Amino acid sequence: MTAKKSEPKKKKSVPAKRAPKTAAPKPEPSPAPAPTKKAAQRPLACLVGDAGLVAEYSAVMQSHGVPVMELRSIASLKSSATKVTIAFELTLSDGPGKRSNLKELDAALAPDVPVVTNAVTATVLSQSAGLKHPGRLIGIAAFPTLIANRLVELAPSLHTTQETAENVTAFFASLKKERTLSEDAVGMVMPRILCQMINEACYALQNDTASPKDIDTAMKSGAHHPHGPIEWGESIGFRSVLAVLDALHAWHRDERY
């Protein structure tokens, strides 16, 4: 009896391990388009007020490439009001005409457009009475010949916003002008002191202390002033000097004015 040969055991086939399914990579979101910057509006200044001051300010602005609208009346502004970026009311003496100009500018211009008003003979606070947007109003020492200097004097009121002050400062920086701030007071600084000096020179002349030429020479050569007080008064206009002195007298009730 022959022994049966044992058959070799069949190896169990182990199924090959399948690689774990990997999730398909999610497509990265496309970057959001960069916000388009709004093009800065080209500056356009509108000027209204005393013809001499309007001409002086207009010449300075245009020499630095700022287009200007010189208005004879606010009515002519309405068709271009949306293009104006800054406005100037340059009437020296306070009165109904100046107040009317301010109200019409306030009504015609966008609320964020600064209005720079001549504040030599009336405070900015008093000029802002009755305006819908008093925060846009800021004062300037607009006086004949002073805009030729490298310094401009501004006066904010209690209502003037920080944005207004910054925008007006930036505008004058574009004209290569530095700015100084004064309190909201009649005369401000430069016109007040200048008019007092001219007034005192006239007293010296009336008292026969010296001739006009000698008074001017003494102040130019001795005190290093750019102009003598008599010739400066003639250049400014003695009516303008008197308007400031009258306003100072009414404000301070002091006989020295």
Which key features would you list for this structure?
globular; 7-stranded mixed beta sheet; 257 residues; alpha/beta
Q: In which order are the strands of the major sheet placed?
A: 2-1-3-4-5-6-7
CATH class of the largest domain: Alpha Beta
Weakly predicted, low-confidence segments: none
Mean pLDDT: 89
| Domain tally | 2
- What is the oligomeric state here? single chain
Structural class: alpha/beta
Strand content: 5-15%
State the shape.
globular
CATH superfamily descriptor of the largest domain: NAD(P)-binding Rossmann-like Domain
Structure description:
With 257 residues, the chain is of the alpha/beta class. The protein has two domains: 137 residues, NAD(P)-binding Rossmann-like Domain (Rossmann fold); 61 residues, N-(1-d-carboxylethyl)-l-norvaline Dehydrogenase, domain 2, CATH 1.10.1040. It is built from eight helices and seven strands; from the N terminus they run βαββαβαββαβαααα. Strands 2-1-3-4-5-6-7 form a seven-stranded mixed β-sheet, with helices on both faces. Helix 5 packs across helix 8. It is globular. The relative contact order is 0.10.
